[in-house]
Write a structure and sequence with these properties.
The chain has one domain: Rossmann fold (3-Layer(aba) Sandwich). The model has no long low-confidence stretch (mean pLDDT 95). The protein is built from 7 helices and 7 strands. It is of the alpha/beta class and 207 residues long.
Amino acid sequence: MGFADATQFWNERFDKKEFIFGKDPNEYLVKQTTLYLKRNSSVLCIADGEGRNGVWLAKQGMRVTGFDVSDIALSKAKLFASDNEVNIQYSLCDTDGFDWQANSYDAVVGIFIQFADPEMRTRIFNQVLQTLKPGGLFILQGYTPKQLDYKTGGPSLIEHLYTEEMIRELSQGFEILDLQCYEKELSEGARHTGLSALLGMVAKKIA
């Protein structure tokens, strides 16, 4: 899917008054941020959508950069940031169009970025490794294949879903600090509601 097609696809989903994934941050992100990140850390949010995670991070004192392929989502995110009196550096682009500057961030956050097919997923892991400072953290949350039984959110294509083995294989150059597959009731807007099959990872860039 090219940039224009991806923009149209996601704009159609985000073009609603409500926040389709809610306004509260992702639970796994909150828990791991509390454990691992310090105030004033520089954090990049991949595909931050309507801003629920980026705004929460900024409210914790982080310096947040984010991007998304949907201009409608980013308009909502910027207003949400303004309402919460935080400043986030947002840009309109996809993962291949973002400027992944080397050794730039203390943390990169990827929450349900399962629009990525296997080839894009490999590129994203390489881009994250490049842009993190030595010792920087990658916080990832996604669905596992069991999610296809629950149908409570996420992609319908199995190749877009995560297994522990796949994530370990992709994490060359990282030290994995936390990697867990688990099931939990999610309540993250209309799009992520109900019992869900999840994977969470925190990995540190090896200096």
